Inverse folding.
């Protein structure tokens, strides 16, 4: 008798979970549809900005990184910044994607760099935080 009620309780809980998960799944689908509509509307303005030569300051949507991804990106950025100018530009690209205050020390190093491109891009990225 006790086993029967336990099985019924488990089935009831499973049905409730399915019902609530469907609602949250529908909400997620609706949110992604709204975001894609916004991106389609802003597509023309993004193309204008992206078409400029030597432009590293994009108007793109925010990317949500996990803590692990942020740490791995940050470590890669530190390693790249110790290389030549091309690697420093790649590191600054990563700093732009992260858009996190933890990238400020590298951006400050970029301001003292020899290459004018690195200095210019570092200054543009630091302006985001002011």
């Amino acid at each position: 008798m006790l086993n029967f009620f336990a099985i019924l309780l488990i089935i009831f809980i499973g049905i409730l979970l399915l019902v609530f998960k469907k609602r949250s799944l529908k909400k997620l689908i609706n949110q992604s549809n709204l975001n894609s509509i916004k991106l389609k509307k802003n597509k023309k303005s993004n193309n204008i900005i992206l078409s400029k030569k030597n432009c590293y300051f994009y108007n793109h949507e925010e990317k949500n990184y996990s803590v692990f991804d942020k740490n791995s990106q940050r470590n890669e950025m530190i390693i790249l910044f110790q290389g030549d100018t091309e690697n420093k530009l790649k590191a600054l690209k990563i700093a732009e994607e992260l858009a996190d205050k933890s990238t400020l020390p590298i951006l400050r190093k970029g301001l003292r760099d020899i290459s004018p491109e690195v200095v210019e891009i570092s200054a543009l990225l630091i302006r985001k935080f002011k």
Remarks:
- Residues 2-41 form the longest helix (40 residues).
- Helices lie at 2-41, 43-50, 67-81, 85-98, 104-111, 116-127.
